[in-house]
Amino acid sequence: MKENIFSNFYAKVLSFFTSGKEEGETSRDNATNRLKLVLMQDRSNLDGATMQKMREQLITVISKYIEIDTEALDLNLEGDGEEIALMLNIPVIRARTREEIEELEEQEKREIEEAKQAAIEEALKSKEENNEENDASCEEEQDDENKEETENENTEENVEENTQEEQAETAEEAGEENKEENAPEDEEETEEKPKRKRKDKENN
Amino acid sequence: MTGRVIVITSGKGGVGKTTTSANIGTALAKNGSSVVLIDTDIGLRNLDLLLGLENRIVYTLVDVVEERCKLKQALVKDKKNPNLCLLAAAQTRDKSAVTAEQLKNITEQLQEDFDFIIVDCPAGIEEGFKTAISGASEAIVVTTPEMSAVRDADRIIGLLEAKDEIKSYKLLVNRVRPGMIQANDMMSVEDVVDILSCDLIGIIPEDTGIITSTNRGEPIVNDEKSIAGKAYINVAKRIMGEEVPFMNLDEPKGFAAFIAKIKNFFGPKE
Q1: Residues in contact with B52: Cβ distance below 8 Å, sequence separation at least 6, in sequence order
Q2: What is the distance between the alpha carbons of residues B7 and A24, in angstroms, rounded to a whole number?
Q3: Are the beta carbons of B184 and A32 separated by less than 8 Å?
Q4: What is the pLDDT of residues A128-142, one digit of tens each?
Q5: Which has the higher per-residue pLDDT, B100 or A199?
Q6: What span, in angstroms and rounded, lies between the C-alpha atoms of A51 and A196?
Q7: How far is A58 from A64, CA to CA, in rounded Å?
Q8: Does B108 touch chain A (CB under 8 A)?
Q9: What is the CA radius of gyration of chain A?
C-alpha cells in the first residue's frame, strides 16, 4: 500500500517535469502507417481476391524449388514511414534436391504435354462436329484424326486458336493440381480468406 | 449576380459537417455577404437546431421541389443576421424526395440572389451525396485526425475529382487536439494533409464550446472568445480570398509550459 502511494507520487512528480515522450512507434505513427497502407489498397485494384490470386501463383512457382509451409505463408503490403513494400514471408520446410526439381520439371512437362494432347484431341473433335454440321462432303477426311492439313483453312485457324487457349487453361489446371499434391490442406484456407476480405469491402 | 455554391461534405458521419456549415455560413454573413444554407440531409435534419431556427420552419426543401410553396417562402431568416437564410430539409421524408436535377435547379435560382449557397451534405456516398454535390462548383471536405474519417475523406476526394463540375475542393480538419498530437498520440494536421494530398482551408481545434453553443442554438462564431469560433471565422475569410495564417494551436513548451502547469495546478480555467 505504502509502496503504491510512493510510486504513484513518483510518477506524478516525473510527469510534472517530463513531457511524457515514449520511444519506439507512437500511436500517431501507428495510425499514419496503417492508414497509408489501407489507402493504397483502397486506391489500387489490389483487393483481397487479387492478392489471393497472386499468393496462389507464387506458391506454385516457389513450391517447384523449395518445400514450403503454404499455410504459414504470409503475403502482405507493409509500410515503414514513406516506403511501402510487398512483404512475402515463407517458412521453408526444406530445399528440394536437384533430382527432385528435375523430376518435378519432368512431371510438369509431361502434364503440359498431356494437356496439349488432350486439347488438340478435343479441338479436333469439335472441329469434326462443326464440319459435320457445316459441310457434309468433308466427312471422309475427318475420320483421320491425326491428319493436320484440311481443305478448309478457316476452320484450321479456328482450331489453332482454340487449342492455344485450351492449352493455356489446361496448363493452369495442371499447375493447380500440382500445388494440391504438394499441399492438400492449403485449399481450405485459400478458399476462406478472400471471402472474408471481400465481405469487409462490402461493409465499407 | 452569380453566387458561389459550396458543398460541405465528409463521407463519414459525426465529423462536424453540419457544425461547419452553420459556422461558415454565419461567419460569411457576419462579414456582409448574403448567404443561404441548404440542409440536404433529408430525414435527419439538424442544421435548423444548430442555428436555433427549429421553431420557425414552415416549408422545407421538399415542399419547394413538390411545388407546395415558392422558393422564397421556404427560406427562413436567421434570428440575428438578416443576411443569413436557411432552407431546411424535410424530416419526415427520405433522400429520394429530391433528385440531383431538382437541387441543381434550386441552387441555380438562389445563385441569382445570394453571394454564397452553402450545401450541408448528408453522410455517405450514395444518392444523398450525389444530390448534394449536384449544384456545387466548390467543396469543403471535413475530416478529423482519425483513421476512419481520413479514409472516408479519401474516398470522397476521389469522387469529387471524378466530377467535372467541382472546380475546387479543400480540406478542413476538425476536432484537432494539439495536446494529443504533441504527445504523439494522434495524427497531426500535417499527417492528414500529407496522406490526402489536398489543400487545407481550415484547422478547427476541439472545443467543448461547440456542445454548449449547439445547446443554445447559436453557432460558435458568435462567441468571440472561443478558439473554434475564431478558427471558423478564419475559414470564412479564406473562402473570401483573404490570406490568413493558420493559428498556432501548439500547447506551450519549456518554461511557458511550466507556468501553464502551475496555473493549472492552482485552478484550471474552464
Answers
A1: B79, B216, B217, B218
A2: 41
A3: no
A4: 888 876 665 544 444
A5: B100
A6: 13
A7: 10
A8: no
A9: 29
Alpha-carbon span A108 to B153, nearest angstrom: 49
B155 close to A (CB below 8 A): yes
Please give the grid coordinates belonging to residue A194: 478472400
Q: Nearest residue on chain A to B149, judged by CA atoms? A: A35
Q: What pLDDT, on a 0 to 100 scale, did the predictor assign at position A11?
A: 64
Contact between B185 and A19 using a beta-carbon 8 Å cutoff: no
What are the backbone dihedrals phi and psi of residue B112, each rounded to the nearest 5 degrees, phi first?
Answer: -70, -30
Residue type at A136 in one-letter notation: A
pLDDT reported for residue A81: 55
Neighbours of B42 (CB within 10 A): 24
CA distance B153 to B12: 7
The answer, for B187 touching chain A at a CB cutoff of 8 Å, is yes
Report which residue type is found at B262: I
Contacts of A26 in chain B (CB under 8 A): 184-185
Q: Is A134 touching B (CB cutoff 8 A)?
A: no
Reduced to 3 states, what is the DSSP secondary structure of residue A96? coil
| Dist CA B171 CA B157 (whole Å) | 9
d(CA B161, CA B155): 10
Distance from CA of B67 to the nearest CA of A (A): 37
What domains sit in chain B, N to C, each tagged with a CATH number?
4-266 (3.40.50.300)
C-alpha cell read off for B196: 490526402
The residue assigned the cell 478558439 is: B227
pLDDT of residue B117: 98
Q: How many CB atoms lie within 10 A of CB A35?
A: 23
Residue B86: closest CA among B208, B217, B174:
B217
**Can you read off the three cell numbers belonging to residue A80?**
515503414
ipTM: 0.77
Closest CA to B87 of B109, B101, B100: B109
